[in-house]
TrEMBL record:
Keyword Signal part of the UniProt annotation: yes
Species assigned in the record: Pseudomonas carnis
Positions of the Spore coat protein U/FanG domain: 23-158
Signal peptide: 1-19
Annotated keywords: Signal
Coiled-coil region(s): none
Protein name: Spore coat U domain-containing protein
Record-linked Pfam families: SCPU
InterPro entries assigned to the protein according to its UniProt record, in alphabetical order: Spore_coat_component, Spore_coat_U/FanG
Amino acid sequence: MWPRVLLAIGLAMPLPLSAVVNQSFQVSATITPGCLIVGGGANYGTLAYGSYSALATSTVTAALTGGVTLQCTPGVALSMSVDGGLYSSTGRNLQLNSGSARVAYQLFRDAAFSQSLGINQSVSVTYSDASNISLPIYGRVVLPGNQPGGTYSDTLQVQLTW
């Protein structure tokens, strides 16, 4: 009887298995190119021409300041377009806040005022530092010297694509 018991106990013990102690697995991630708008909230900046006499007839220029900066994945093709504003019946216009008088103005995409930024025209935004991109918007207005005094303004919508 004794040998049978030993045989039964031997069958109940697990047999040693060969274990894999060295194996590999893959790790991957997909990084999607794009851009991030930093700061400024809903305000993309200000194009302020300053204060002048109602009789002034000079040409005044300004650059977009303040507002947002952008950060893009290096190499991303960034584009922008700017609409005609609230008073764009025949072009972009500043309108007297307490009246209907208007003063025409133009936008440009370079500080030399040689590259016009047309209404809803999509233009490339070039940059050298992908982590600090400013929108290249410059304005020029010829003061007519015959408009009522007061504050003139307009609101523009900027569309960014990448």
